[in-house]
Amino acid sequence: MRLSVIVIAKNEERNIRRCLESVQWADEIIVLDSGSDDATVAIANEFTNHVFATDWQGFGIQKQRALQHATGDWVLNLDADEYVNAELKDSILRAITSESADGYRVPIRMCFYGKPLRYCSSPKRHVRLFRRQGACFSSDMVHEKIILPKQAVIRRLATPILHNSFRDVSHALNKINLYSSYSAQIKISDNKKPSLTKTIASTSWMFIRCYLLQGGFMDGKAGLLFAMLNAQGSWYRGIKQLYPDQQ
Q1: I need a labelling partner for 135 at 20 to 30 A (CA). Which of 72, 150, 191, 211 fits?
Q2: Cβ pair 224, 120 in contact under 8 A
Q3: Cβ atoms within 10 Å of 93's Cβ, excluding its own
Q4: How many CA atoms lie less than 13 Å away from 137 in the CB half-sphere?
């Protein structure tokens, strides 16, 4: 079973080397760049001959474009700020040779200031490893999904992908601002009516879920800060829905 890794990127020179180094064992690496003006493309060319450039049309469309370049039997979908450790590598290789499933949900463990957070990561497990045949990505601007054939069997891997989502507070605020704009636009397009009460409730719930229910308080000061940043993202999204002309 041949494995292709797909990565979309823009201005990821701080992260992409670690990402690509962690999957050098794959049969094929596809990098799709969307206008980087830093060293992202040069670094990617050190690891693969399959580096492509295109315009930016949103996460779903970019992932689908990258998928169309893949030729492996299986595909591992990674973001440029994610990487795979040795334990996950072994799990992936066992999975794609077992013939027991068509896709695997993989947990994501967030890293903050370079350190993994054991409790603050998202409770959702997304399908990141899947058979290429019949697979495609949704065209969502953000929070894209992989769509597999109806009869596909989905199982889970236990070892997480490591995700350096936020380098520091400034990077986190910039990223939260961008992603909350995308999410607000999607909800506005879907005619989902916002309210201040719902926004406050959503913000409060995000903090409670991340810090208390998921045990973020056991990650210490970093866990508290991470929970507050996640809650802030919910607040930004709701406010941008309420005041779309002020974004």
Answers
A1: 191
A2: no
A3: 14
A4: 24
> What's the CATH fold of domain 3-164?
Spore Coat Polysaccharide Biosynthesis Protein SpsA; Chain A (3.90.550)
Domain ranges of the chain: 3-164, 168-246
Is 187 in contact with 194 (CB distance < 8 Å)? yes
Asked if 64 and 136 count as a contact pair (C-beta separation under 8 A), the reply is yes
Asked if residue 244 has pLDDT above 90, the reply is no
3-state secondary structure of 186: helix
| Cα maximum dimension of the chain | 52
C-alpha distances in Å from residue 165, one per residue of 114, 172, 199: 10, 8, 24
Residue 55 CA to residue 143 CA, distance in Å, equals 19
Give 213-240 pLDDT, tens digit per residue.
988 899 888 889 889 998 999 999 999 9
Q: What CA–CA distance (Å, rounded) separates 154 from 156?
A: 7
How many other CB atoms are there within 10 angstroms of residue 126's CB atom?
16
Find tokens 């490591």 and name the residue: 162
Q: Which residue has the tokens 């999957």?
A: 23
CA 90 to CA 58: how far, in whole Å? Answer: 32
Specify whether the CB–CB gap between 5 and 29 falls below 8 A: yes
Which pLDDT score is estimated for 247?
55
In this structure, what are the phi and psi dihedrals at residue 183, rounded to the nearest 5 degrees? -65, -40
For residues 111 and 168, is the Cβ–Cβ distance under 8 A?
A: no
6: helix, coil or strand?
Answer: strand
